[in-house]
Amino acid sequence: MYISFNQKNTNNVLFDEIKKATKFIIIHTLFFNDTGIDLNFISLLNSKIIEYPEIYIEIKIGLNPFLKPKLEDLDKKIKVILEEPRTLFFYVYHARMFHTENVFALGGIDITKENLHENYQQFALFLNNKKYFIINESNYFNYEICDLYDFVGNSTNSYKKLLECINSAKQEVFIDNQYLVFDDFVDELITKKKKNSDVKIYILTNSEESNNPLNKFETIVTKYASQISRNLYKNKLKKNNITLTSSTKYTHNKLCIVDKRYLLFGSMNLMARSIINNGDKEMSIFLENEELCNTLLSYYEDTFHYETI
């Protein structure tokens, strides 16, 4: 198991794992466009087809309707799946995932140029675990033998698991999420605090001043909905002794750590379009790993300067 804390390092790990793969490579990502793509990825994937003619390579792209995907340079043997939004900008395929016969990864799997993420806080979790493998082209997981990790395969289940984590907390809840735009979730946090006032709850999200280096991909609706909701929730959370903070870096993570032992990690934003009625298609994983949780919390403490908002 390995956690990557920045896009440069994530790209390096992805390159290494692609080079090692001989049977299959599966990449699910949101952006694969002309302005953002790292062209070295395309060259490397094409070279795998030449080196291993029987290898299966799949790229699933959650399309932004205004971004033309960079597909013409890909070898024709690479399977490309384009997931169109059901409504303009909304209900997209939002999951990020990377999978070979050697490793399963999720989180910040954006196949983009490193400089797009210089002030961007985005983690990727790599699991060197062969309990995950291809069964067929549409089903990548053997649920019966996934005894180490609880795979949460859609937004509704991800949200249920998040609430389970919070309600089970005995000491501390730490949440890092790009958005906080969901009334019911704020109410759930307040209910938990009222039931057990000794549980400390910390939320890291973006302030109005946070500099999103990818803000040209962010909709005006999402941006201002987030700002308005944050202002509404701020006093409500403060009155209930729940700490809401921001960082000097723009956070794009979606994670929850409970009691420094349990981690829910994936792609689900805390907003209605990601949660209600199976909105955006998401992917999360839940695991118990005290060492990993403490590594993450130490990194937050040592690296980021927080301000209460």
UniProtKB/TrEMBL annotation:
MF annotations from Gene Ontology: phosphatidyltransferase activity
Residues in PLD phosphodiesterase domain copies: 247-274
InterPro entries hit by this protein: PLD-like_dom, PLipase_D/transphosphatidylase
GO BP annotations listed: cardiolipin biosynthetic process
Coiled-coil region: none
PANTHER family named among the record's database cross-references: CARDIOLIPIN SYNTHASE, PHOSPHOLIPASE D
Protein name in the entry: PLD phosphodiesterase domain-containing protein
Provenance organism: viral metagenome
